[in-house]
Amino acid sequence: MKSIIVYYSYSGNTEKVAGILAEVLTGKGEVQQAELVCPDESKTFLGQCRRAISHKRGMIGPLNFNLGAYDLICLGTPVWAFGPAPAVNTFLDKCFGVEGKNIVLFTTYGSGAGRERCINYMQDILAKKGASKFRRFSIQQLKVNDKDFVISAAKEAL
Questions:
Q1: 20 to 30 Å CA-CA from 100: which of 74, 77, 92, 158?
Q2: Global model pTM greater than 0.70
Q3: pLDDT at position 64, please?
Q4: Per-residue 3-state assignment (H helix, E strand, C coil) for 15-83
């Protein structure tokens, strides 16, 4: 099985979860990780939230948006103002090749408000592009460093 984990991480929490997910998937085949980098993002929390709540897009570095070569596509984001980070919005706009693919959506969050809305938003976009099988999990920032907890959540979603 060939898997890709695409994620955006501002504080490092989503990156930690992506790394643990990669460890879990390594025994199942080839795993590639792709971090979304947004050079035009706001450096303030309020600025980040303003962009996220209005589903703004952000520039992201060079990346192959064709996901057709992967059997499993994992997409992770922090929850910002009830939605994904702007870099993830841009990736969702540009990605293709997801028809009939298995998708794992994951989020990291603080309070939990908006995490379902965020993950539903991502799922709706990918479903419109033809993705058909979705699994999901979310990790609160207080649990990000609990590797056993994250492994359990990832395995349950897989």
A1: 77
A2: yes
A3: 79
A4: HHHHHHHHHHHHCCCEEEEEECCCCCCCCCHHHHHHHHHCCCCCCCCCCCCECCCCCEEEEEEECECCE
